[in-house]
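Tokens in:
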């Protein structure tokens, strides 16, 4: 496993194969991931613990444990935590295709590269 600190919490990379990437996202209360989309990456998210709001394609839904969502390429999305979140993510291995539209940490307009991949 690889631990990657982020301004909003951390990622725990637990699997990287040719077919998928598995991560645990820990998002601290009061923090949010960037409003972003991926050009090719397909993500499936399972919200294990915590509360917040998940924005998907311009619609907001409450985050509660047990919520499962699939994010298709090109769909803007953002996660905001009102209580500490633990999220299981499995996605296709394209990790270089994020486009940030808004970001609280000065990364909007910057594409995330291989430096975050294990």
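Residues out:
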């Amino acid at each position: 496993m690889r631990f990657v600190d982020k301004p909003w919490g951390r990622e725990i990379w637990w699997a990287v194969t040719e077919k998928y990437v598995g991560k645990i996202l820990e998002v601290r209360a009061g923090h949010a991931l960037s409003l972003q989309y991926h050009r090719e990456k397909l993500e499936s998210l399972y919200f294990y613990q915590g509360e917040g709001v998940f924005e998907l394609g311009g619609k907001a839904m409450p985050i509660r444990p047990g919520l499962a969502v699939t994010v298709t390429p090109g769909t803007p999305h953002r996660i905001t935590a009102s209580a500490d979140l633990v999220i299981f993510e499995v996605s296709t291995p394209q990790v270089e295709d994020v486009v940030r539209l808004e970001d609280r940490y000065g990364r909007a307009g910057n594409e995330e590269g291989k430096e975050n991949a294990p």
